Amino acid sequence: MNTQSIVWEIARAGGFTAYILLTLAVFTGAAQSLKWQSGRWPRMINYETHNFLTLLSCVFICVHVLAVWIDPFTAFKWYEVFVPFLSHYRQIWVALGIIAFYLIIATIITSLLRNKIGYKVWRVLHLGTFVVFLLTTAHGIATGSDTRTWWAALIYLSCFGSVSGIIMLRALTPAPKTQKTYPVVAMATGALLLVGILFTMVGPMQPGWNIIANNGAGSGSRITASNSATGTSTVSLNPTQQFTANVSGQYIQSTPDTFGNLQLALNLSFASPANGTLDITMQGHENSATNNDDDDDGNNQNRSSITITSTSVILSVPNYSQYSGQVTSININQQWYMQVNVQDITQQHTLLLKLILTVSSNGSVTGAIQGTPQ
């Protein structure tokens, strides 16, 4: 695992840990207002647990922010990490996370100054914790690279659902002194939960969300290849935007083993407009039956039939994370027509590759490739 992968894993783990801790902090805070306590678990423990979870979530938010900041892929400037709406990547959604970060710091400070500012002022300001949770949820869902995975979706649903549930319960529970309930707050919270689920399903859960969220500005990477000899900068092929290129390389087919299993490999390089490699490996099985066909010159020849059983594709472009995936379709006649789906290491960026290749008898390959972000 390289440095970029380690930093990215820390950023992801820190973000999810902070979010879960924040959920527990908000939940225990709401539980205090419901006076959930017993002789064995007094209210003071709930209060201290709430404060501890809030502080610990802030620590992991700092870990998340630091890891994102030093990530060489996005290469954020300091102001992009600390000033809202200045990020070059998913500007709005990153801004929500920055605002939430400042609000949670303000919440911790007001809690420390509770005796000086008074309970009523503190209570009003402390309601900002719910705003922090809402902004953090939106930030995580819309910016996170794991939103489309089942486990991340389960975390978001569980956390958002549990907090929404306890808020609705608190709003519908009569206050001890006034016996007031707040059905409008309960209905608004339920509606917000429903809107959040629908937004996630039609937005971040869809394959084309990166283009929408980042306003078509690619993956967030700003690394460019520089020409030190001339002192000028050149932009390399960007796999997060649509591109076409010429390719060349070699086709290698292994000899079938005793069971008829063999391997087919295409080792391709981009000829223009930029450097890069595409390695396609296919495991196949040679069928025992052969067909007697005539080639273009009318000569009769035997052609073995090969069934492809599995494929593996690696796309490497300088200054970008490695993409991997599989061949989704292949048609071999006079030319090879192939379609390939690949994703980068974050599983955030998906690329559809279409290839038209000419494979000569000596194994040399020439052709063209088109890449389209999904």
Summarize the structure.
By secondary structure, this protein is α+β, with helices and mostly antiparallel strands. It has 10 helices and 10 strands.
Attribute tags:
alpha+beta; 374 residues; Lipocalin; 10 helices; 2 domains; two-stranded antiparallel sheet; eight-stranded antiparallel β-barrel; single chain
Describe what you observe in this structure.
With 374 residues, the chain is α+β, with helices and mostly antiparallel strands. Helix content is 43%, strand content 28%. It has 10 helices and 10 strands. The strands form 2 sheets. The chain has an 8-stranded antiparallel barrel. It has a two-stranded antiparallel ribbon with strand order 1-2. A hairpin with a 4-residue loop joins strand 9 (350-359) and strand 10 (364-373). The longest helix has 31 residues, at 3-33. The protein is elongated. Residues 222-235 and 290-303 have low confidence and may be disordered.
Secondary structure blueprint with pairings:
Blueprint: H1 3-33, H2 43-70, H3 78-82, H4 91-112, H5 114-117, H6 119-126, H7 128-143, H8 150-172, H9 183-202, H10 209-213, E1 225-227, E2 232-234, E3 243-253, E4 261-272, E5 277-294, E6 300-316, E7 323-332, E8 336-344, E9 350-359, E10 364-373
Antiparallel strand pairs: 1-2, 3-4, 3-10, 4-5, 5-6, 6-7, 7-8, 8-9, 9-10
Helix pairs in contact: 1-2, 1-7, 1-8, 2-4, 4-7, 8-9
Per DSSP E runs of 2 or more residues, the count of β-strands stands at 10
Count of structural domains? 2
Strand content: 25-35%
Average residue pLDDT: 80
Rg from alpha-carbon coordinates = 28 Å
Q: Outline the low-pLDDT stretches.
A: 222-235, 290-303
Structural class assignment? alpha+beta
End-to-end separation: 26 Å
